[in-house]
Design goal:
Number of helices of chain B: 7
CATH architecture of chain A: 3-Layer(aba) Sandwich
Distance between the termini of chain A: 39 Å
Largest sheet of chain A: 7 strands, parallel
CATH topology of chain A: Rossmann fold
Radius of gyration of chain B: 18 Å
CATH class of chain A: Alpha Beta
Distance between the termini of chain B: 36 Å
Strand content of chain B: 15-25%
Structural class of chain A: alpha/beta
Largest interface: A-B, 70 and 74 residues
Order of helices and strands of chain B: EHEHEHEHEHEHHE
Helix content of chain B: 40-55%
Number of strands of chain A: 7
Structural class of chain B: alpha/beta
Largest sheet of chain B: 7 strands, parallel
Oligomer: heterodimer
Chain lengths: ~300, ~260
């Protein structure tokens, strides 16, 4: 690293101009790379909330989407929406804390569709139990929290990675939380597990990069999944939106295009990254209002 | 593609002498935006380069304007924004691509080199954001996206000054996100790793190969790599993301 701007840089400029001419022949094609036609995806927790929004966005981009989750009913409802879009869907009831069930999920999708290109590890629980002092957390509660929010993602990747490696292509998206980057009083499992998901993403990215598998993470802040016209939805939007820089909570649909990008070849140079969608939440946090009084430097 | 539409939006892309900014301009146009492009230095040669990119945008059936100004002159920046707003009525998107890759041992950096880098990359971007931001805050809508380098996050010998400008812009991004959050203006950054044709790449082939082996996906970044994410952040669907810097760097930052 001994270069300064020099004759060499000048020469590079000339090369760049040539390259731009070369690229111009195919300009206007970047966004076509977002297409997911002929791709298949598994979305855990795909029946509701952010998982549902991501599943529908993937389907609209052309993918067939298998949905996994504990309860069959929401999976089937979302599956019906995917079929209305004109894509295929599978509903696979799955408890992601049970490794065999996750393996079965992945295998049955591969069996059904012949290949699996995209895995979105979205399932998790925001609060497994009431928040309480650390000495009251039982072994069972600790393991349940870690398993649901961390181990489930690991089981999914373990089950699909060899298949993707053999095909020399794959996209894995983990879903963490803003609490991956911040602590929370009397919250242990969720914050620990989500922080681990971010770093699991980095290690997987490095481990799978030679197989052309990209692993990234979506980090949602406060999103309200209840419909805007429901009383609970309205109340949560108001309460939580007040604390965010943009003055509002996120809407699940806003995550859709991001999931499509990370599932598509348009993101092939991106791996190991966490993309944070939190209305400015993590950029702030130094005071209740995140505003300093005006102070003149003179 | 759903969520990736910029129909009716007005964009300004600066630093259009660089390939990533050129790719941003043509991809914003692909998504439907009208695009103004700006080269960061004055002069007929720079105007010609800027105009070449504008011409490509016109070939894409979008409106385009071209500028070439000395971005160390605050008045020149303001007059571009004024001209643009006068012509198109608003400004929705600012892509900051001003860049002067620079590497030298800290003890050898001259005051004039220092002033040059600080005035161009840092000052130019800062003043561009202020001039564009004033318009965006007034119209209660805007998207500001600054292109950075992974040097915002890591130290590299001989890159002290350049790194400093990158982290400074990252922090500007965070603070303005908070300041303008409720005004409908989001402020983000996208960082790249080692890019094709960067003047900071080793000139020695063996050294370059060694570097490529070190990059987890073993390839240099290409101008188009940042383009799709740029469109998402610039779109109406990108409104919940602000204050963030995300990197498209082949896995470099996950590396031990």
């Amino acid at each position: 690293m001994r270069h300064t701007l020099s004759a060499r840089a000048e020469a590079e400029c000339m090369v760049r101009i040539g390259l731009f001419d070369e690229r111009n022949k195919e300009h206007g094609v970047v966004l076509e790379r977002l297409s997911l036609t002929n791709k298949t995806a598994v979305v855990t927790g795909g029946g509701t909330g952010l998982g549902r929004a991501m599943s529908l966005a993937l389907a609209r981009a052309g993918a067939d989407v298998a949905l996994a989750g504990r309860r069959l009913e929401p999976l089937q409802e979302t599956a019906a929406e995917i079929e209305q879009i004109g894509r295929q869907s599978l509903s696979v009831p799955t408890d992601i804390t049970v490794p065999d069930q996750v393996t079965h999920l992945i295998q049955s999708v591969i069996e059904q569709w012949g290949h699996l290109d995209i895995l979105i590890n979205n399932a998790g629980i925001v609060r497994g139990q009431e928040m309480k002092p650390v000495w009251e957390i039982t072994d069972e509660e600790w393991h349940r929290g870690i398993d649901t929010n961390l181990s489930g993602a690991f089981y999914g990747v373990r089950a699909v990675a060899r298949h993707m490696a053999e095909r020399q292509q794959g996209k894995i998206i983990n879903v963490a939380s803003g609490f991956a980057y911040r602590g929370r009083r009397n919250e242990y499992m969720y914050t620990s597990a989500k922080a681990a998901v971010v770093n699991l993403t980095r290690s997987l990215a490095l481990s799978l990069v030679d197989y052309n598998i990209q692993v990234n993470c979506i980090v949602p802040g406060f999103f309200i999944v209840q419909p805007p016209d429901s009383p609970v939805g309205q109340q949560r939007r108001e309460q939580q939106g007040r604390f965010l820089a943009v003055g509002r909570t996120g809407e699940p649909e806003e995550i859709g295009p991001l999931a499509v990008f990370l599932s598509s070849s348009a993101s092939n140079h991106m791996t190991g990254q966490a993309v944070i969608s939190d209305g400015g939440g993590l950029s702030a946090g130094l005071g209740p209002l995140s505003v300093a009084p005006i102070a003149d430097a003179e | 593609m759903e969520g990736y539409t910029l129909e009716g939006k007005i964009a300004l892309v600066t630093g259009v002498e660089h390939p990533v900014a050129q790719a941003a301009a043509t991809t914003l146009a692909e998504a439907g935006a009208s695009v103004a492009v700006l080269a960061g230095q004055a002069g007929s040669e720079h105007q010609a380069e800027s105009e070449r990119v504008a011409e490509v945008v016109r070939q894409q059936q979008r409106d385009a304007r071209s500028y070439a100004i000395d971005v160390t002159q605050v008045e020149a920046i303001q007059s571009v924004i004024d001209d643009l707003v006068q012509h198109w009525g608003r400004l929705d998107i600012l892509i900051n691509g001003l860049d002067k890759p620079f590497a030298a041992p800290f003890l050898d950096i001259t005051e004039s080199q220092e002033a040059n880098i600080l005035a161009h990359t840092l000052g130019g971007t800062l003043h561009m954001i202020r001039a564009a931001g004033r318009q965006m805050v007034e119209q209660q809508h805007g998207r500001i996206i600054t292109y950075l380098s992974v040097l915002a996050e890591r130290g590299v010998a001989n890159c002290s000054l350049y790194s400093m400008t990158q982290t400074a812009l990252l922090q500007l991004t965070r603070s303005l996100a908070i300041e303008w959050g409720t005004r409908g203006v989001t402020v983000n950054a996208i960082g790249s790793g080692w890019m094709e044709n960067s003047p900071l790449l080793p000139s020695d082939d063996a050294e370059l190969q060694r570097l490529q082996r070190f990059i987890p996906n073993h390839r240099l970044g290409q101008p188009d790599d940042l383009a799709a994410l740029t469109v998402y952040l610039a779109s109406d669907m990108g409104g919940n993301i602000t204050g963030q810097t995300m990197y498209i760097e082949g896995g470099l930052l996950s590396h031990p």
